[in-house]
Amino acid sequence: MQRRWIWIVSGLGAIAAAMGLLGCNTYLRYQGWSVERQDPEALAQMLRPSYRVQLPSGPGPFPTAILISGCDGPKDNLGRWAEALNRMGWGAMMVDSHGPRGLTEAQLWRLVCAGQVLTGGERAGDIAVALADVRAMPRVDPDRIVLIGSSHGGWSILDLLSLSGQGRRPFNLARWPEGQGDMGLDGVVGAVLLYPYCGVGSQVSRHGWSADLPVQFLVVEDDTIVNEEACLAVAERMKANGLPVEWHVLEGTTHGFDQQEKSLFSTLEFSPEATKQAIALVKGFLGRIGAQ
Q: Please, is 225 exposed, middle or buried when counting C-beta atoms within 10 Å of its C-beta (0-12, 13-18, 19+)?
């Protein structure tokens, strides 16, 4: 009996130690302390083959949106937004953070969704180098760039804004890309966040942001994936600080309403109606900030 108790206690100790290590690793990753820093050019070389650029016809230069996917990687919603933006006279560059890192399999991208791999503060570096790249394209207006992110992509954009305001770089960058200034946001005139994560693991929940950029939140009522109330609290706090922030709560739809491609057993639903509403809201936002 005594030996059995020793085994049980030893087993529980091993489990507790494993959970402690997992928690420690998660904390270090969320703080960026365990993330390898890269030269921005090396990161750009990895990402560039997967860029998808879609511009309207004509010589340009066009105002352009950088589109950042959710935690499951680029899906049909990015193409849907690119087409809508083209109809508004906007270009679009879709950035794939998953494929170049081999995170396309479900068991791997689910780690992104769980915050165990590629947190928002780390993925913010992908946005920074993509921003430098898109501004160098000949038919793109380098001074009219908007960042649009879905879910995890929205988290990454918010963390980029937050880290920049703290005087910090994204976790995976050794320095800001050339031509992006000391804050890494040159050329950005606004941001749109579709049902983003704003929870305790995000930089924005603790530090907010300081950039005087128009920001639009589109959240879902009773979101079952992220807590929309956390984003509304952030938005209200930033607006109270005098920053140009607006938010809209979409009712009767689900997280990922604009994405038709779903993972197996997903309870989320594609909603053409909510997607149409969101596109109209974004079009109005772009018009109000004078980016059209």
A: middle
Predicted confidence (pLDDT) per residue in 160-206, tens digit: 999 999 999 999 999 999 988 888 899 999 999 999 999 999 999 99
Question: Measuring CA to CA, which residue among 169, 181, 249, 247 is closest to residue 214?
Answer: 247
Q: Give the integer Cα–Cα distance in Å for 69 and 162.
A: 19
Helix, coil or strand: residue 63: strand
pLDDT, tens digit (0-9, with 9 covering 90-100), for 73-128: 999 999 999 999 999 999 999 999 999 999 988 888 889 888 888 999 999 999 99
pTM over 0.85: yes
What single-letter amino acid sits at 254?
T
- Kindly calculate the radius of gyration of the chain based on its CA atoms and give it in whole angstroms: 20
DSSP H helices, the chain, are: 2-31, 40-47, 76-87, 106-113, 120-135, 152-165, 203-207, 228-240, 272-288
The CA distance from 155 to 198, in Å, is 6
- Taking every pair of Cα atoms in the chain, the longest distance, rounded to a whole number of angstroms, is 82
One-letter identity of residue 96: D
Distance, CA of 38 to chain centre? 19
